[in-house]
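User: quick one, sequence for these tokens?
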């Protein structure tokens, strides 16, 4: 089947407590930020309500010029994203129709004319519904994944995979909370996409483990078989994640402000997913199996 004595730089499973420690050290700061009063996620207008102005000016305009005009309406704290010299995405508190018209007219008059590409208002009721639907989508996806993995492999691997996905979700949420990056509806889509990507890599590794377990010899331990399986799939995992990362980096640099936060969430999540698939999911399954084996061992009694 394979040679357990072949040269490998290190043993993945024997170092699993080290991998767990790294995950904890990464997750805890973000978790503290999420739970700290006055911190949490920097929710965008999709969640809190507000107005979104997508404007195209007739000439190149600086961000400072746009902010200067908005300051006259008490909107100097607005989020202004510039996608090129003339296109701007402006997020502000919810504006009435008259206020919105006055702001757009002032920008056009002072900055040489403007074309409104999008002018939307999102109320807080829609924001609450979006949060509820996002949480429901995450729960449904998690349950379906456990059912599928249990059917194809076993229940313990499904639980290990979901814990790894929870790790990825907390990493993305933590990064956005720590650095106060705005989370909007596209952020929710990014988290769900990351879950799908991460579980795919985990399934590939679990499949190799199953193949190797079927060829298991008496002198081979679960730890050694899983370690070999991880080394056998490592090149595939690295190559896959790098191809995705290259595309995401290109989109982050060239994609413009509209998709910036979505791509950033994807980038963080894909990197975390690659880590958790290798260093968390399979080692956790090994620990679950070892606990199961210890539970089956009956204590010896002296007569």
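Assistant:
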């Amino acid at each position: 089947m394979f040679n357990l004595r072949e040269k490998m730089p290190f043993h993945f499973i024997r170092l699993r407590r080290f991998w767990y420690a790294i995950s904890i050290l990464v997750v805890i700061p973000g978790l503290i930020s999420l739970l700290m009063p006055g911190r949490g996620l920097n929710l965008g207008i999709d969640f809190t309500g507000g107005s979104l102005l997508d404007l195209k000016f007739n000439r190149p305009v600086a961000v400072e010029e746009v902010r200067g005009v908005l300051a006259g309406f008490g909107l100097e704290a607005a989020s202004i994203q510039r996608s090129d010299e003339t296109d701007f995405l402006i997020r502000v508190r919810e504006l009435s129709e008259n206020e919105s018209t006055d702001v757009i007219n002032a920008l056009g008059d002072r900055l040489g004319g403007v074309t409104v590409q999008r002018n939307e208002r999102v109320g807080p009721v829609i924001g609450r519904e979006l949060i509820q639907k996002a949480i429901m989508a995450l729960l449904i996806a998690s349950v379906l994944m456990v059912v599928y993995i249990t059917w194809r492999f076993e229940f313990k691997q499904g639980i290990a995979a979901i814990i790894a996905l929870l790790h990825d979700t907390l990493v993305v949420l933590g990064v956005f909370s720590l650095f106060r990056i705005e989370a909007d509806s596209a952020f929710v889509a990014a988290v769900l996409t990351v879950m799908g990507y991460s579980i795919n890599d985990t399934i590939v590794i679990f499949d190799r483990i199953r193949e190797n377990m079927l060829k298991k010899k008496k002198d081979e331990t679960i730890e050694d078989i899983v370690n070999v399986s991880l080394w056998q799939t490592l090149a595939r995992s690295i190559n896959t994640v790098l191809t995705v990362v290259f595309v995401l980096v290109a989109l982050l640099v060239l994609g413009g402000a509209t998709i910036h936060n979505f791509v950033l969430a994807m980038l963080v999540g894909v990197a975390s997913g690659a880590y958790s698939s290798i260093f968390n999911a399979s080692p956790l399954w090994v620990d679950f199996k070892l606990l199961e084996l210890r539970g089956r061992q009956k204590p010896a009694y002296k007569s």
